[in-house]
Amino acid sequence: MGTLKFYPFHSTIQPVFWNSLAHKKLEELKLSETPLKVWGSFTNTDSPKSGLSPRLCLEWDGLEENAPNSWTQFGVRGEVVLCNTIESFKKIDKNAFMQRLGEQIWNKIVTGEFWTNPSLLSSFSVLMFGDLKKFQFYYWFAFPAFNIPSSIRLSSCSSVSEVLSAELIRSIATASSQFNKDYPNTLYSVVRIENEKKVSFLQFSELQHLNKDSNSARNFICVADPNSGDENPGWPLRNLVIALSASNTRSINYVDLNLKLMKWRLVPDLDLEILKQTKFLLLGSGTLGCGVARGLLGWGARNITFVDNAKVSYSNPVRQSLYEFSDCLDGGASKAKAAAKKVEQIFPGVKAEGIDLTIPMPGHPISDSTEASVHAAHDTLHKLISEHQVVFLLMDSRESRWLPTVMAACHPEKIVINAALGFDTYLVMRHGVRHIDTEAQTFDLKDCVPGTHLGCYFCNDIVAPGDSMSDRTLDMQCTVTRPGASATAAALAVELAVSCLEHPLGGAAPSQSSSQEQHQAAESVLGLVPHTIRGSLHSFNQFLPTGSAFSQCTACSPTVIKMYKDEGFELVKKVGTCPKYLEDSTGLTELLSNTDIMDSVIGLDDDDTFSMSSDS
After folding, report:
1. What's the pLDDT tens digit per position in 196-218?
2. What are the DSSP E strand ranges found in 525-602?
3. Which is nearest to 465 in space by CA: 408, 401, 557, 420?
4. Rounded to 10 degrees, what is the CA torsion of 466, 468, 470, 474?
5. Alpha-carbon distances of 468 from 217, 307, 367, rounded to whole Å
6. Marked catalytic residue, from 478, 553, 556, 578
7. pTM score of the predicted model
8. Is 478 a catalytic residue?
């Protein structure tokens, strides 16, 4: 990446223009120094071998009302300030003059007027004095331009023939010719490419409203460039870059307004930067995934990755807020990719990515023919979890959560948030973290379970996850739940993740084990950081149980973590064929055979909850 540079305009004035100006001074302006509207023009047809610099020229018809109409000329609107005396011409503060012009252009950017009239970005002004007795003229051109921030860099510069096929270039030329007939002398436009033969030119203002959900269309900004060389673009692109950058910056400021207001008085210690810098991985792009993504946007998240293996179906858009009916057509769009596109549409400042991936699962055997693809999926998942700080488990099957849980447990400081739904109940929990030294932090942990000792999603299970997806009726294949349950669970999942990030210990934040008065160690600047949230829409209640890590857990126990670190994908292959391998390895098989212990086990599924009535 290099510095973005631009070729400035050189100014030229055709002799005949002075005749028109002299006539205007004598017949209309007289002693008035009111600025005159003027047309300048440039061409983009200079041969690269000519060595000619980009030129803005005032032609004989520059004072006419209409823009130049030659297809090789592009008109730029400006003004001429004609001074009455040479002394007044010399006394004008050129810096202040340029500053005023720059402020006028900046106002067009701030108000958004440049979207409908982008040629305003290339406006210019000329200071002049004309000694009509001697027919001598003095002039000074001003081409206002803004400094390019160092954060804006040139990623690459290539000839169009290097990146586009010959057929596509011909299609672009044909579309350009038609566009120039309809909208002559257009400095800025948009090229929309749907395929090699379907190309259209649009007015620049359409860029704000283009449908980004198209599976194939690519949109490019087209600028009439006066520079014939191939090193750097000409001056018309410079202020456009600033306008687009500033427009995006303003949207970011407005997006963060609610968060910044929180910091004013309500939560002055709220760390907004950590939310911007954190990378969030959403495993599952369905009802929960869509809800979580919207919640993260509200908290100012800038990096969101969606993972799913499904396509958008006709039943999805009414329940899953990132999809529309058009996403269901033609077999359905990839859920992960469609969700990422929609998030970027909602807020262009977000870096969102959608990845199609099937997660390897216990109880789902791996054959010789599928081993290579499953291994690749395993490696991709491992890389994703390594690269993201917060992982949401939002899938619709128990066994699909097992491998991400194991992988995250092998990575210190990963925050894992799990959300699961029943018909009218929900479960939201954070996994305990492993291998983190919290001794440096001094907290009174009375009535609290340290974050390093908290259980994971599988710690409450005494059986290994297995195939729960085969031989299921339609109502079992779909997540049949009251609509409010998913929205509630998604919102709580986001709030729990943010509370963890805002706690001094992050994912290692302790959880209160007593229902007595709230404990300071278990709070972030936003309040309590619970381990588990279980709720019921049937009884409209909610409670916060805390569970310790299970030494024989099939996902996060030291035994399983060591096996995975030693065996990696080989362990995944074993449990794919025989989930009971986990039970045997962790000692659960022996535990299950002990009737004295098993008689005291309480079953509590995702869709179970306790009565919270005052009589209980």
Report:
1. 888 999 999 988 777 544 455 78
2. 527-528, 532-536, 541-543
3. 401
4. 180
5. 39, 20, 19
6. 478
7. 0.68
8. yes
- Taking the C-alpha atoms of residue 588 and residue 598, their distance in angstroms, rounded to an integer, is 11
CA distance 417 to 211: 33
- Where are the alpha helices (H) located in 152-271, listed in sequence order? 160-163, 166-182, 236-255, 257-261
Confidence of residue 437 (pLDDT cuts 50, 70, 90): low
Q: Please give the backbone phi and psi of residue 577, each rounded to the nearest 5 degrees, phi first.
A: -85, -40
Burial class (CB in 10 A: 0-12, 13-18, 19+), 134: exposed
Q: Which three-class secondary structure state does DSSP give residue 394?
A: coil
Q: Which residue has the higher pLDDT, 258 or 296?
A: 296
Q: What is the 3-state secondary structure (H, E, C) of 487-540?
A: HHHHHHHHHHHHHHHHCCCHHHCCEECCCCCCCHHHEECCEECCCEEEEECCCC
End-to-end CA distance of the chain: 66
Contact between 440 and 533 under an 8 Å Cβ cutoff? The reply is: no
DSSP state of 412: T
For the chain, the 3-state helix, strand and coil shares in percent, each to the nearest 5, are 40, 20, 40
Q: Convert the pLDDT of each residue in 225-242 to its tens digit.
A: 998 877 788 999 999 999
